[in-house]
Design goal:
The complex is a heterotrimer of chains A (276), B (350) and C (313). Chain A is mainly α and 276 residues long. In chain A, 73% of the residues lie in helices and 0% in strands. Chain B contains 8 helices and 22 strands. With 350 residues, chain B is α+β, with helices and mostly antiparallel strands. Chain B is elongated, with a radius of gyration of 24 Å. With 313 residues, chain C is mainly alpha-helical. The chains are: A mainly alpha (276), B alpha+beta (350), C mainly alpha (313). Chains A and C meet through helix 1, helix 3, helix 4, helix 5 and helix 10 of A and helix 1, helix 4, helix 5, helix 6 and helix 7 of C.
C-alpha cells in the first residue's frame, strides 16, 4: 500500500517545489564545501566547484595550532558536559518517575520552569558568579552551569513512566534496591532513548555559542565556535578557503552522528521543540 | 517454616477502602487461593504479603517473624507476575539468576541452581534465549522458574495464567499444582477464575469489595457457601438464587414451594435439579424456555408458569426438549440452600 | 533467625527502624538524586533571576566597589533610549518577517512531503533538516562569505551577468533582512518537522475514503488537513517568536554586532550590549527584567497552544 495521498498533478508540483527548497538548503552548503577544496588561485573564481580540488585548506587549518586548541577545547568540554548531563538527567528523571515524595510536584514544576528561561535572562549574575568562583576562562566554567538539563530530565521521565511498573516490582522481589533497579533493570532498557538524547545534547553543546562567548577569553577555554568567529574577524580575503575548511570541519561531527542515527535524532529534536 | 499470618491487615487508598481488616493463617506447604471479581482486593492483599504495598493497618508474619515494615526485597518470598515481568534485556538464564545475583551467589553456584531449576521446568534448551524469542507459555514457565530457583519460604502468584489461551491454562495449572506439591512450598495464588481456584487450592479465600466472604476448602465452599455471593460465585453455571416468600406454612418461590422455615431466598445449583418428581424433594415445574447443549450435558432454562424467574437446570446427556415443552424437576432438600435477608446462609431445607 | 511467638513479638523497636528506613528510601533517596539538578538550577537559573531584579535598581559597572540604589531610573533610562527604541522596532520586524517565512512557508513544504511516498518524503525531510544540525556561528560565517560583495562567490557569479552584489550586512536597510533570511534558512526544516508531526496524526484512510467519495484536493485540504494544522500553526508561530527573539542573537553578534546604526539589534541583543559592551549593569538588568515579563506572557501562550495542539492529537 503506497502512502501517497496527493493526486498526480499535485505530486509533480510538490516534487518541483521541494527540489527547489532542497536546492536552496543544500546549495550554500555545497558552495562552502566547494570553496574549501579550492586551491588558492581559484578562491575568487565564480565557479562553484574547484577545477583542481585540493585538501591544502584542510591541511592549513589543521596545521594551525590555535584551531587545534579550539578543537580540543570543544571536544573536551562537549564530551564532559554531555556525560554529566546524562547522569544528572537519569538521576532526576528517576526520582520524578519512580518516587512519590513530599515536594514532588513543586520540584517538578521548578525543573519544567527552568526549561522556559533562555540563558540571556540569567547571564549577568552568572557572569559575576563565574568570575567570583575563579572559573572565568576555564572548562569548568563552560561545563558546570550547563549540567542541569530540564528538557532531558523531562524526556527521560516520560520514557521511565512508560516502563512497565511490574518490572520494578519483580526486581524489588528479586532483591534489588532502587539503585540497582535503576542501573541493572531500567537503564539497559532505555538505551535507545538515552542514545537519542545523548546525540541531541552533543549537537547542542558542540554548537553552543552564547555562554562560551561570555566566559571564554583565551585558548585556555575557547571552543571552535568562538575560535571560528575570531578567525572571521581577523582573516583576510585569500584565507577564505581555509576558513571554509574550518567551518566544514566544525560541522562534521554533528552531521556524521546525525547520519548514523537519523530517525531517533529527528524525533528527539521535534520533542525538544515541542517543550523547549 | 513457611507459614504466613495476616492479622487485621487492611489497605486504604485515601478514602477508599481496598481491603478491610483481614485475618488469615496459612500453614507451611499450604496452597491458598485468593479469588474474587476484579477490584475485590485480592491482588492488593497479595502485594501486601509481598511487601510491594504498605499496609494501612495490621501485622504480617512470615515464618513467625513480623515482616510488616519490611520491603519486598527483605522478605523471603518469590512472585510470579501477571505479565511475567521478565527483564527484556536479559536472557532466560540471566532472568532466572537475577535474584541469586542480587543475593551475592557466586557465578558457579548460580549456574548450578539455574540449570537445576530450568530442568525442572523443561527450559534447559531455552536458557540462552531472550524473552521476546519465547512463546507466551514459555515465558510463563520462565517466570515460574525464576521464582523456584530462589527456594523461598513462600511463592506468590498474581493471576499467572490469565495471559494464556484456554487450553494452555488448563495444563499450566496442573503443572503448577504438581510442582508446588513436589516442592511443598507455601503458596498464595490470586485469580479471578473460580475454576482455577477450585481445582488448585487447598483452601480458598473468597473476597468481594475488599471483604473476605468465606475461607474454606473447595468442597465446603461448594457445599456450604457462607452467603449468596459465594454461592453465586463458586460453581458454573451459577447457583439459582431466588427470592422466596413464606405464607406461614410453606416457603414459596416461582415454580414451586417447600415446607421450610422462613428464609429470604432459596438457592439450588443447576446440577442438583433432576427430571421428575421425587418424594420429599423440592419440586419445580414450568416449561422449557431455552435449551443449550454444552456437550456432555444440556443447560435448560426452565420458566415457571407465573414467569417471574427463569431457573437453570443442568441435565446429563441430550434430553430432546424444545421450547414450550412442559418440564418438572426436583432437588433433594439437602441441596436446597436457604439464605436470610442479609444473604447469609441459614442452612439447607433438609 | 530466632522464631518469635506471634502475638508477643517485640514490635515497636524493629518496626520503627524498618519504617524509618522505608521513609528514607521513599523520600531521602529521590531528593538525593534530584539534588544536583535542583542545586544547579537554583544557582544558575533561579537565583540569577532574583539577583537580576536587584541589579536592575542599582547603578553599577561590574567593577566599582559600590552599587548605588537608583530606584526606577534604569527602567526609565532604557525606555527613553534610542537603543531601546531601535531594538523594540527591530524585534517587531523580526517577528512580523518571521511569520510568512518561518511559520507559513513550511506548511506547503510539510504537506508536500507528507503527500509523497515515504521514501521520497524522507529524502526531502532529511535534506531540509540538515541546517538544524549546523551551528549558527558556522551558518553566519558561511553566509557572510557567500554574500560578501567583494570576495563572495555569489558576488562573483552576479558579476558575470553584470549585476552588482549589495553589501547586505553593512547596509542599514538590508542587514536585518539578511539576518532574517539566514535564520529562515536555519530553522525552516525544523518547523517543517513540527508540521509533519501534526500531519502524522491524520489517518490516511480518511484521505482514501474522501477520494473514493470523489473529493477534490482542495476540499481534502480544507476539510481534513487544515483543521488538523491550525493548532500546530498556532504553536509553531509562538515557538518561532521566542526563537526569533532569542536565537538570532548569534548571527547578530557574528555578523553585525547590532549595527549598522542599531539596525539589526533586538531586545535580547540590547541587553547584552548594555551589560557587556557598555558595562551598564543596571540598564542590562532592567532590560532583562522587562524581557522576562515578556517571556512569561509568550510562554503562557505557548503552553496554551501546546495544550490545544496535544488536544487535537
Amino acid at each position: 500500500m503506497s502512502a501517497m495521498t496527493l493526486s498526480p498533478a499535485w505530486r509533480v508540483t510538490a516534487h518541483v517545489a521541494l527540489l527547489m527548497v532542497c536546492f536552496a538548503i543544500i546549495g550554500p552548503m555545497l558552495l562552502v564545501v566547494g570553496t574549501s577544496l579550492k586551491p588558492d588561485n581559484e578562491i575568487f573564481s565564480p565557479l562553484p566547484f574547484p577545477v583542481s580540488p585540493t585538501l591544502d585548506n584542510y591541511a592549513a587549518i589543521l596545521g594551525d595550532a590555535a584551531f587545534r586548541t579550539y578543537l580540543w577545547n570543544s571536544t573536551g568540554t562537549t564530551l564532559l558536559r554531555v556525560a554529566g548531563q546524562l547522569v544528572l538527567c537519569v538521576l532526576a528523571a528517576y526520582a520524578f518517575a519512580r518516587f512519590r515524595f513530599p515536594g514532588h510536584n513543586a520540584l517538578f514544576f521548578l525543573v519544567l520552569g527552568a526549561m522556559m528561561i533562555p540563558p540571556q535572562l540569567t547571564m549577568i549574575p552568572n557572569y559575576i558568579l563565574i568570575a567570583d568562583l575563579g572559573w572565568f576562562d576555564t572548562w569548568t566554567g563552560i561545563i558546570v552551569p550547563n549540567l542541569a538539563m530540564p528538557f532531558g530530565t523531562f524526556l527521560l521521565r516520560q520514557h521511565m513512566l512508560a516502563f512497565p511498573r511490574e518490572l520494578f516490582d519483580a526486581a524489588e522481589v528479586d532483591g534489588a534496591g532502587p539503585w540497582r533497579q535503576l542501573w541493572l533493570v531500567l537503564i539497559p532498557n532505555l538505551r535507545p532513548a538515552l542514545g537519542a538524547l545523548a546525540i541531541v545534547l552533543f549537537i547542542e553543546a558542540w554548537n553552543e555559542y552564547f555562554w562560551p562567548l561570555l566566559i571564554s577569553e583565551t585558548d585556555r577555554s575557547a571552543t571552535l565556535q568562538i575560535g571560528l568567529r575570531g578567525f572571521l574577524n581577523e582573516e583576510t580575503g585569500d584565507e577564505f578557503g581555509k576558513l571554509m575548511a574550518g567551518v566544514t570541519l566544525a560541522s562534521l561531527p554533528a552531521l556524521a552522528i546525525f547520519f548514523a542515527f537519523q530517525r531517533q535524532v529527528m524525533q528527539t529534536f521535534v520533542s525538544s521543540g515541542l517543550k523547549g | 517454616m513457611g507459614e504466613v499470618n495476616l492479622s487485621g491487615v487492611a489497605k486504604r487508598f485515601g478514602e477508599t477502602v481496598a481491603v478491610e481488616a483481614l485475618d488469615l493463617s496459612i500453614d507451611d506447604g499450604e496452597f491458598v487461593v485468593l479469588v474474587g471479581p476484579s477490584g475485590c482486593g485480592k491482588t492488593t492483599t497479595l502485594r501486601m504479603v509481598a511487601g510491594l504495598e504498605e499496609v494501612s493497618a495490621g501485622t504480617i508474619r512470615l515464618a513467625g517473624e513480623d515482616v510488616t515494615a519490611r520491603r519486598a526485597r527483605e522478605r523471603d518470598i518469590a512472585m510470579v507476575f501477571q505479565n511475567y515481568a521478565l527483564y527484556p534485556h536479559m536472557t532466560v538464564a540471566e532472568n532466572v539468576g537475577f535474584a541469586l545475583r542480587m543475593k551475592g551467589f557466586s557465578a558457579a553456584d548460580r549456574a548450578a541452581r539455574i540449570a537445576r531449576a530450568a530442568e525442572l521446568m523443561g527450559l534447559s534448551d531455552l536458557l540462552a534465549r531472550f524473552p521476546r524469542q519465547l512463546s507466551g507459555g514459555q515465558r510463563q514457565r520462565v517466570a515460574v522458574c525464576r521464582a523456584i530457583v530462589r527456594e523461598p519460604a513462600v511463592f506468590l502468584f498474581d493471576e499467572p495464567l490469565s495471559n494464556l489461551d484456554a487450553q494452555l491454562r488448563v495444563s499450566a495449572r496442573t503443572e503448577i499444582r504438581a510442582l508446588q506439591s513436589e516442592l511443598n512450598t507455601t503458596s498464595v495464588y490470586v485469580t479471578h477464575d473460580q475454576v482455577e481456584a477450585m481445582t488448585m487450592a487447598d483452601r480458598i479465600v473468597v473476597m468481594h469489595q475488599g471483604r473476605v466472604q468465606q475461607i474454606a476448602d473447595p468442597v465446603t465452599l461448594y457445599e456450604a457457601p457462607a452467603n449468596t455471593f459465594v454461592a453465586a460465585f463458586i460453581g458454573s453455571p451459577a447457583m439459582n438464587i431466588v427470592t422466596a416468600t413464606h405464607d406461614g406454612e410453606q416457603l414459596k418461590v416461582p415454580g414451586g414451594a417447600l415446607a421450610a422455615a422462613p428464609a429470604a431466598s432459596v438457592g439450588v445449583r443447576p446440577e442438583h435439579l433432576t427430571p421428575g418428581e421425587a418424594d420429599g424433594a423440592f419440586v419445580l415445574s414450568g416449561s422449557v424456555h431455552l435449551s443449550e447443549t454444552l456437550g456432555g450435558e444440556t443447560l435448560v432454562h426452565l420458566k415457571p408458569d407465573d414467569g417471574a424467574h427463569v431457573w437453570q437446570v443442568r441435565l446429563p446427556g441430550h434430553p430432546r426438549l424444545t421450547t414450550g415443552d412442559a418440564l418438572t424437576v426436583s432437588a433433594p432438600l439437602a441441596h436446597v440452600h436457604l439464605f436470610d435477608e442479609a444473604g447469609t446462609r441459614i442452612g439447607t431445607a433438609a | 533467625m530466632v522464631p518469635v511467638t506471634a502475638a508477643e513479638a517485640p514490635r515497636t523497636r524493629p518496626r520503627l527502624w524498618a519504617r524509618l528506613a522505608a521513609v528514607r528510601e521513599e523520600t531521602a533517596l529521590p531528593l538525593l538524586f534530584l539534588s544536583p539538578t535542583i542545586l544547579l538550577l537554583g544557582v544558575f537559573v533561579y537565583w540569577p533571576l532574583l539577583y537580576t531584579v536587584y541589579l536592575s535598581f542599582v547603578d553599577w559597572n561590574f567593577v566599582a566597589d559600590s552599587k548605588d540604589f537608583v530606584g526606577f531610573e534604569n527602567y526609565s533610562g532604557i525606555l527613553g533610549s534610542t537603543l531601546f527604541n531601535d531594538a523594540a522596532r527591530n524585534t517587531l520586524l523580526y517577528v512580523v518577517g518571521s511569520i510568512p517565512l518561518k511559520v507559513l512557508l513550511p506548511i506547503p513544504i510539510a504537506i508536500g512531503i507528507w503527500g509523497l511516498s515515504q521514501r521520497m518524503g524522507d529524502i526531502y525531510k532529511t535534506i531540509i533538516f540538515l541546517p538544524t544540525l549546523i551551528s549558527f556561528v558556522v551558518v553566519a560565517i558561511a553566509f557572510s562569505w557567500l554574500l560578501n560583495p567583494f570576495m563572495g562567490i555569489i558576488g562573483e557569479m552576479l558579476r558575470l551577468v553584470g549585476l552588482r552584489m549589495p553589501a547586505v550586512f553593512s547596509d542599514a536597510d538590508l542587514a536585518l533582512w539578511g539576518i532574517l533570511g539566514i535564520s529562515t534558512w536555519k530553522i525552516i526544516g525544523f518547523n517543517t518537522l513540527l508540521y509533519l508531526a501534526g500531519l502524522a496524526t491524520i489517518n490516511r484512510d480518511y484521505v482514501e475514503a474522501m477520494r473514493v467519495d470523489g473529493a477534490s484536493d482542495g476540499s481534502i485540504f480544507r476539510h481534513l488537513i487544515w483543521p488538523m494544522l491550525t493548532p500546530t500553526t498556532f504553536f509553531v508561530a509562538i515557538a518561532t517568536v521566542i526563537f526569533s527573539l532569542q536565537q538570532v542573537f548569534t548571527p547578530i553578534d557574528v555578523l553585525t554586532q547590532g549595527g549598522p546604526s542599531n539596525s539589526t539589534t533586538n531586545l535580547f541583543y540590547m541587553v547584552y550590549q548594555y551589560a557587556f559592551v557598555t558595562f551598564n549593569v543596571g540598564f542590562g538588568s532592567a532590560g532583562t527584567v522587562m524581557l522576562f515579563a515578556l517571556m512569561i506572557i509568550v510562554t503562557l501562550l505557548k503552553v496554551k497552544a501546546f495544550e490545544r495542539w496535544v488536544h487535537y492529537q
